[in-house]
């Protein structure tokens, strides 16, 4: 799991499954997945199996502001340990290009530093 994503112990226990699902959900404007793009800020899984994701977007006018949270919830609910999912969108802190992972930078043709 990325160091810049706040994650609780229950979610950390299934982090490989979470990353696998998040890497399959692409921001259509940037053509990079939400995980490597750095849109995910926080993941919490509670004792009832509810997974809450806190995320942002690259821009307040993002065309995918409605579709991406739904795609994330639908994908995460396919993980055995997750019964339900919700997404909270936040604008603070604002997304910055520095949140893109090294892999994401290479994929987008940006200097990986």
Automatic annotation (TrEMBL):
Protein name from the UniProt record: MIP18 family-like domain-containing protein
Domain MIP18 family-like stretches: 17-89
Domain of life of the organism encoding this protein: Bacteria
